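Reopening this one. Same input as before:
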Amino acid sequence: MTDHSSTTPHAPAIETHDMSIFYGAFRAVKDVNLAIEPRKITAIIGPSGCGKSTVLRSFNRMNDFIPSFHFEGEILFHGANIYAPTVDPVQVRQKIGMVFQKPNPFPKSIYENVAWGARINGYKGNMDDLVESCLQQAALWDEVKDSLKKSGLSLSGGQQQRLCIARALAVTPEIILMDEPCSALDPIATLKIEELMHELSSQYTIIIVTHNMQQAARASDFTAFFTMDTDRAGLMVEYGPTNQIFITPKDKRTEDYITGRFG
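Same output, byte for byte:
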């Protein structure tokens, strides 16, 4: 694979060097070299089973919870390998937050959903201000400001997903990972999340896995296309500005996938 770090003229938000991911003896992803642009939206696309979510979860060590998981290579964040033995994965997850496919608010109040992570991380500031700020950033404040004591589970699916984004923001991450965050949402809620991603990308680096090609084309600045090799291992084929990937892809496999010839 080509080392794509040369495409980034300044320090990447996060970068991988020869990253391979194994579940037991099976290599799920192989030899990925990827440099993510800071404060941009990067979409990871590709057919089912090509390792998109596995790659995303590797960026904040969520795969560590899978007993058979094994990692080779490096992921550098601020120049340090997050898989080094001395690194605490909990601290990694504070700086690299995650929003999942299905909204998963805690069975707590809207207020406590946002405050919980900050509180357990020892936040010393004004919690009311923090909760309001995060809900404002997640474009949810105006809809819930009069019902903060209500359960987060009482919200609509789209509101729950924005609450989960507010919860991720409360621990002041630098990077937000989103694993198909709109797949369970209707088109109007999806558009709100896309608009929100665009607003947040002025302050945060966002990496999104999506099966929705139109969403990747609409919402992202950069796109990484993955497919499977003959051993069914995930392989990054091409990475670059979204317009280039969708309009003038360099690899025929990318073109075939984007035009619907396979996948």
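So the earlier flakiness isn't reproducible anymore. For the record, Confidence is low (pLDDT under 50) at residues 1-8.
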